[in-house]
Amino acid sequence: MTKLTCIVCPLGCQITVADPKMSGELHITGHRCVRGRTYAQTEITTPRRVLTAVVAIENSPRLLPVKTDRPLPKELLFTAMEEVKGIRVKLPVKVGTVLRANLAGSDVNLVASKNMA
Amino acid sequence: MRRSRIDLAVIGAGPAGLAAAIAAAKAGVGRIALFERQTEPGGILQQCIHNGFGLYYFREELTGPEYAQRFIDRLTDYPQIHLQTASTVVKITPQREIYVVNEQTGIRYYQAKAIILAMGCRERPRGALKIPGTRPAGIFTAGTVQQLMNIYGLAPGKEAVILGSGDIGLIMARRLTLEGIKVRAVVEILPCSTGLKRNLVQCLEDFSIPLYLRHTVTRINGEKRLTSVTVAPVNQDLQPIKEQAFTLPCDTLILSVGLIPENELSLMAGVELDPVTKGPLLTSTYQTTVPGIFACGNVAHVHDLVDDVSIEGEITGQAAAAFLNGESPTEPYIPLRTGRNIRTVVPQYVSLSNTTTLYIRPLFPEEDVTLKVGPATRRFKAVTPGETIRFRFDPTQLKSKPEKIPVSLEVETCD
Ligand code: SF4
Known about the structure:
The structure holds two protein chains of two kinds.
Chain A (H helix, E strand, L loop, with lengths): L1 E4 L8 E5 L8 E3 L4 H12 L2 E2 L2 E6 L2 E9 L3 E2 L3 H9 L2 E2 L8 E3 L9 E3 L5
Parallel strand pairs in A: 5-8
Antiparallel strand pairs in A: 1-2, 2-3, 4-7, 5-6, 6-10, 9-10
Chain B lengths: L2 E9 L3 H12 L5 E4 L15 E3 L8 E2 H12 L5 E4 L2 E6 L4 E6 L3 E12 L3 E3 L15 E3 H9 L8 E5 L3 H12 L3 E7 L8 H8 L6 E3 L1 E7 L6 E6 L12 E4 L2 E4 L3 E3 L2 H5 L24 E3 L10 H19 L9 E5 L3 E5 L2 E2 L5 E7 L3 E8 L2 E8 L5 E5 L11 E6 L5
Parallel strand pairs in B: 1-2, 1-8, 2-5, 8-19, 10-17, 11-12, 11-17, 12-13, 20-27
Antiparallel strand pairs in B: 3-4, 6-7, 7-8, 9-18, 14-15, 15-16, 20-22, 21-23, 23-26, 24-25, 24-27
The structure holds iron/sulfur cluster (SF4).
């Protein structure tokens, strides 16, 4: 039995996953909505987190806030940060502009989270 | 000094001020000045680069700058809103005169028919905690660290201890760790964290950062730069147990120990404050004790979620528009009286003709309780001071017009 706190919304439901490895079907309880169920399923197998950071802008002291467009496998967070630190962005960018596809060799992209010109 | 006449002045272009100004414009208010002391609108959201904003308001998960951008984009639809950045309001009078300072234009003076206060809040500093010890460099509030890292790209130090487990502190624990700065511990005097559970998981547990509950920093050590802090467990009365004290080496101490609404301007305007929320006393439409002066967002009371701030801003903007239309509320407002296990309730006065969304903060954590607001009740499995209770109060439930409406959390079961 595994106990999890759902991090999808501020309610933070306490989810219990029974015998995650033994039987094929996961027995998930405690979630108040379906997103919690999906979260528990991924959290048990390959936990993922959204990464947010800031990156440098060419010829400017300003910084651009960025995020991954989807959650990134948790074990790649630090590798991804190393890659993020090397990025220099050319302006203008808009919210959602892809700055680096397949961040840290994953299936997620790093995107701008602010309009900057 | 040049004087400009305007209909509405909104002080602060953070989430509350943006939502209020837009709602007022939408409701037909003509000349609106939106004053912002920073060089861009968005307020604190611009440095909150993490995600988790907007789940209620936009039904998607956004970062702070993205959330702000949605409102900033809407400004272009309302040319009647004059956004004035790098403009600090230094004085407001009860006659609704406003003095604004800007580097280029000097001091300007406005006469407004209505004012919305949306200045937000500030962090409690070291001085408010009275921690003994030396006065070295390396002590910051969590919001300052957030600004240094996310706006200016500066690292505050190499090894940090965070005092207080509020959300900003937890968020910064993760941010520091990802940037390669060691976070030795988060120290919390209370038996439970004051931050959201999701932040305990994704900011501390994910990175195995220890959380010392029922502990506090009892001494600051170091001459020029902080070298360590002394930490001790506390007893029932929150007094440190000196015999069990230990030292945590660090060059940075980050304080995440609460926020205080920023009401210097409100006081100048003659607005009466609630001694507990430290924000203005408010009616259901967020009007202060001075007619025509409204307040919303963190200047009114500290919110857990920006989504609530936006909704409150909209209610306030609409109310200011109604006031400017001459629809001044003649109806009496009934005061709420805080009772058992209630720290604060905002608004403090409710209307008898419309439902009011109340934001209620308990004093201490408790399980299986019933919230009572006059005749209305709702059961809760658990309440904690870290999470505000939102409750829609419907005045039609009142049988007669009361003097006061009591609000309390009761342990015995009702019905
Ligand atoms: S299960 Fe649903 S309601 Fe509960 S925390 Fe997760 S997302 Fe929120």
